[in-house]
Specification:
single chain; alpha+beta; 3-stranded mixed β-sheet; 4 helices
Amino acid sequence: MVDQARARRLAKRISAIVATAIEYEIKDPRLGFVTVTDAKVTGDLREATVYYTVMGETVEAEPDYAAAAAGLEKAKGVLRSKVGAGTGVKFTPTLSFVLDTVPDAARQMEDLLARARAADDAVARVAADATPAGEPDPYKTPRDDD
């Protein structure tokens, strides 16, 4: 029987353990700008997927995704043992790390929304100075019979 609530609680706990271990215990410089964003655990609690993002050293610098992935792959065993000690479950889930694409998708959506707002503003500027193509009052009025 799959207990989804237990899987969600375990995923939240795994995410906290992995984030803390990356920040304070793993001394790999490639993991300095890695942030754990989420974790998902299968219903049988055997596999956990940890989602992460990578920030650049500066705002303009491009993040080094390959180095971060290599650092996480190297630290996978240590992180799994930390998860096993921190959760106390019978079977420690295997960890897999996936680059989280949500921040990039959100940034793309923000860019699309900004372009749509700019297009709406341009249409509003043109419409403000526009005059009707036909008569000023396009609705027919009843005739006065003389």
